[in-house]
Write a structure and sequence with these properties.
heterodimer; A: 28 helices; B: mainly alpha; two-stranded antiparallel ribbon; globular
Chain lengths: ~650, ~500
Amino acid sequence: MPTAAKVFGGYWFLRYMDNVLQKIVWWIPLLPLIGFLLNGLRRNTLSKKVAGTIGSITVLGSFVLSLLLFFQVKAGHSFNVHSFDFINITSLKIGFDFKIDQLSSLFLLIITGIGFLIHVYSTSYMQEEPSKDFAKYFSYLNLFIFSMLLLVMGGNYVIMFIGWEGVGLCSYLLIGFWFKNHENNSAAKKAFIMNRIGDLAFLLAVFWLITKMGTVNYDEVFSPVNLAKLSVADITGITLLMFVGATGKSAQIPLYTWLPDAMAGPTPVSALIHAATMVTAGIYMIARSNILYTMAPATQVVVAIIGLATAVLAATIALKQNDIKKVLAYSTVSQLGYMFLGLGVGAYTGAVFHVMTHAFFKALLFLGAGSVIHAMGGEQDMRNMGGLKKYMNVTHLTFLIGCIAISGIPPFSGFFSKDEILAAAFAKNRVYWGIGVVTAAMTAFYMFRLYAMTFLGKFRGTHEQEHHLHESPAAITFPLIVLAILAFVGGWVGIPEVFMHSGHKLGEFLAPVFAQTNVYIEAHHLQNELSHNTEYILMGTSILLAIAGIYYAWNKYSKYQKADIASTGISKLLQDKWYVDEIYDAVIVRPLKSLAMFFNNVVEKKGIDGMVNGVGKAVSYGSRQLRWLQSGQVGAYVLLMVIGMLVLFIIQLFL
Amino acid sequence: MLGTYFTFPELLIWLPFVAGIICFFLGKKNAAKKVALVASFITLAVSVISLFYTNDKYASYNNVSYVWLKYIGNTFYVGLDGTGRLLTLLTAVAFPVIFVATYNTKQKTPASFFGLMLLTQAGLMGVFSALDALLFYFFWELALIPVYFLCSQWGGEKRIQTTFKFFVYTFAGSLLMLIGIIYVYLHTPGRTFEDGTFSAHSFALSSFLNAGLTASEQNWLFWLFFVAFAVKMPVFPFHTWQPDTYDQSPTSVTMVLSGIMVKMGLFGVIRWLVPVFPLATVHFSHVVMMLCIIGIIYASCIAMVQDNLKKLVAYSSIAHIGLMCAAIFAMNQLSVQGVMLQMFNHGINIIGLWIVIELIERKTGVKNISQLGGVAQKAPVLTIFLVIIALANIALPLTNAFVGEFLMFSGLYRFNAWYTFAAAISIILAAVYTLKMIQRVFYGNTNTVTEAMTDISINEKISLAVIVCLIFIMGIYPQPMIELTKEAVSNLVAMVK
């Protein structure tokens, strides 16, 4: 029974707030949309200062609202908001609905929080653009935030899909932001098309759901009554198709090759879209559909294996890249692979946890790299860097924190989330763990290779560049500092049971989202528990391997000298990214083009058209034989028809 | 007065018809253009007003029938249902947009040009509202004949050849349909007119529905009608007239052809083919669908390697229409509702694309993708419009085409999952050719051809803005359009069951 105080102080207040929040939820995506429209429509007249402020303030507004929502949800008030019917026919009802629960409110915080920091960062980073393009940049960025918010807030798969394609579009626009250069355009196009392949699979999964259930609302799809309508084949097919969708958006095998190319876009874009938010959409989707995946063990195996394979493949490529952004791009692909491994072994909380910590440290690393590139006057090749430590204090320190965090050294954030995934992987299959932990060592190695080549040793660039070196302004260093703090402490919300009883606050918070899965697992006796001792050993091993990786990289690259030795063998293979792009080109792109040429030149022109022209010539010949239609001209035919029509009318008049 | 002297369908037919006749007699430079513009706006107003009188109690506003050729049982019977209202609205919206957008294009002998354009509009309105088979055929030809003239007189270099091919295709189709109509007519029950005249048969749609055709009769009659409609849509392999015709016709005619006239084929299937031959429709649904799906993939592939902008849009349109035709034959509520929306949306989007292409061609004298580049730097506003319309053309969510395609594919999936997998490949291919076009034409650096290009003028801006607004309105809030056609969809689906 609630006490009187509770009634007055808590219950009614919460009811009241609930009402208010339901009404203001709309403003979360709406604010960035307004920013987009303002900056987009008035791009020719707005000054840079105003454009940047509009862009940043709108996202800050969304962040504040998201924070309010978060506390509501934390107090146990999840809710759905319906605003209008998007499609409403007898056999299918799709509303423009939002679902605010633990999962979406967490993603809201990540998106708007990091989004805001990156907007602030961009006001300085993009300063050299003409003011028209500056405003255009911010309008795209705001549109991205809007789409991403739709994606995570949507209360059904269709609204998710709207956001899903929306973020793909923004990614396309921003990768190709400098559109005079065709390389950027091609990278943008590639990103869009590879995403679209995934989108298609996602759509097919939605059609499948509609056909079987007649609904796409999460609450209805995940209801036991509707789940019972799905056969094993249905559920496996649907989850696999959704996963293909996720491989597109989240850059997994076989659709990952667009992400490294996407580095053609401005660096803050890489940080926001291609590291912290958009690429985690696939993880969000699977975490959202967790009950479907739990019920499809075959799909889970596929997810885990693809995730693991991507993690390894991308990590090997990252070992040999010299472009600072490319290393980070492959690192992102690899870390996303970890998240999918987590999803595949049923560690949904771990995967979402890693999304969060990764958002902190990877955004930090990208923004740090941006700060470096800025100081180097656009240079991205690490072989021409070195010794930047003494020129860029804040960038250097924050970057180092990011590197330690991603390497999985406690008590930095990456350790907790990565370890949770690895422990779950061990419980499922020791091979998963073995490969995962080796990949972690590689990660530590290439990250510290990057760190050492950039910040340690002697400066290897030109004199002009050396003269130009400087620490970045506050608009750039402020986000770095905030993110560095988060990258350091961000993991403490998920301290494992072995260290601290009920230390996993995030797990407790997210529990309702995965409740159905947990019930299912318990009912089917699928739990895998690890003893505390095993967990200690696992952690110890991964920390040791990471330290070994760091040590090796530090030793090898802290005094790096440029050398013109062409790499050979496996080293060349890695440098050239396993030739995956070339293979795709030979196996898919070129045959498709040949087929299209064949259709165009042979089937269309010689085949069908040839036949028709033959008929045409015959008619033409025939008509030449008839004197009154001398030349076979169309006009004559037409005249005849008009006369025919008139005759009909005239007959009518006289009868 | 309305309902007593005039009904909506009559107004929609006679307004452009009379204005068109008037235009022929206006020799002066811009007089015909102005009359055409005003007439098209009045027609639009009538069409919009008619949307508020859809209720059954306004039946007398929407349907009218009077005796025409009574001794053969033919009446001038026109009426508007959801489908008709949708397509007459499309026709009514399209013409003013086209006239405004091409206001700066100079035509030789504008009097006959605009006269013929308006006659076409009258014919189209008639096609979409005729409830009598002979009348339908009459309007079908009335819509086509002016187009032959427009193509052959005002077209590009190869206009005669092209028009000839167009003519052969459509004429063959029309003849087959006429044979079909006569055959069905001879099987219809007789009727007695109010004045006591009796005719042995009747051309009325209701009589056609009661013709009592056997399954085997339906099976061959189906093809007589289908070929006529398939040519018009066009469906593979009856499509080769289209790219050439789109390429060679004056652009405003191409807009009419691609935006509205292709809907005549789809409309024919919905209004006549399916209801009159329900057994054959079910019987041949797989065959038709396979043709459509082959066409979708085939046309999308060819679009990928097209250098000619106009032909690219033509092939893209063949793919889109193929999907619509397939969705009709899936015959469920989802797919047919999708077709309804998409018929309207496709018309809007493709007219938008033509406006942009016409502008580029007019300003640069070039329509080959390989010769263009960097247009975005010279004409940023035009580029923004084009990008939005192109994205709508590839059915990005929150644009109009997404809703239609989503429903069509959902319905198709319900019919057959494998067909859907195959047809849906076009979603990827569409992105490939559209983005390639955007990249080559608009991005990159300018060259000698595009160097001197200027941005768009106010009338073009207005017409493109109208199109973009429609794209978003129909993409974000499609429900009113769904409501408009809901009943027609249920009726149609019920016919086959």
